Amino acid sequence: MRGPAGILLCWLLLVAPHCTEVAAQDDEPDPKMPCAKWMGGAPGYPGHNGLPGRDGKDGKDGLKGEKGDAGAAGPIGAPGAVGPPGIPGRPGASGSMGMKGEKGDAAFVHRSAFSVGLTERPPAPNVPIRFSKIFYNEQGHYDASTGKFICNVPGTYYFTYHLTVYLADVKVSLYKKGKAVIFTYDQFQNNNVDQASGSVLLHLSSGDEVWLQVYGNGNNNGIYADNVNDSTFIGFLLYPDMGDY
After folding, report:
1. What is the DSSP letter of 44?
2. DSSP per residue over 170-224, as a string?
3. Can you say whether the dihedral through the CA atoms of 189, 179, 204, 140 is positive or negative?
4. Rounded to whole angstroms, how far apart are CA atoms 237 and 245?
5. What's the pTM?
6. Does residue 13 belong to any structural domain of this protein?
7. At 200, which CATH number?
8. What 3-state class would DSSP assign to 107?
9. Is residue 125 part of a domain?
10. Chain segment 167-197, per-residue pLDDT in tens
11. With 0-12 CB in 10 A as exposed, 13-18 as middle and 19+ as buried, what is 85?
């Protein structure tokens, strides 16, 4: 259907539902007014709980609360392992000087030494040679009247002799406690002055005697000394026996 009649029909069809809805709304009672035009139905049953909603966003932090009281002290824990040494601290200040101590005993140094020369010539054979020229005998351990050194400090000693040889051969020995320890022989050459010498280390006990002596038969006592030639006998303590002191 076309033309004005068709347009009118279409307009009526669109307006009719709206008018019906308005009329229906006019028939509903005002919920604020007493029931005058209709009667309400019985209340329905409560519906089922709905599904939990989603978690909301975290809220902002609140204000800081007041500090609470301290709790009770807990039990003492086990000792920990020893840590590494720390850095050395600075040196402390010097302390005050202490009181002076008591005077100690002075250290005692054991000494025993002699150095002697010959004045008699020629010496008699088979008896101790008496060296009566004293160079050093501070401790008095050498006896010039007998020609013997007497040990007063037990220990190790060094002995040596240097003899001028003239006019005859020399056979000499160093004795300890009456027994020859070393021997020296020098053959004299005519119109010449010779030298004979010897040395030895000996351990001596207190009272031991040491001396030089011409030995053997015959003319073997060519030991000589004068204003320009010396024959000497020397001995001294190297170190004492510490167990005896």
Report:
1. P
2. EEEEEEETTEEEEEEEE---TT--EEEEEEEEEEE-TT-EEEEEE-SSSS-EEEE
3. negative
4. 15
5. 0.56
6. no
7. 2.60.120.40
8. coil
9. yes
10. 888 999 999 999 999 999 998 888 888 899 9
11. exposed
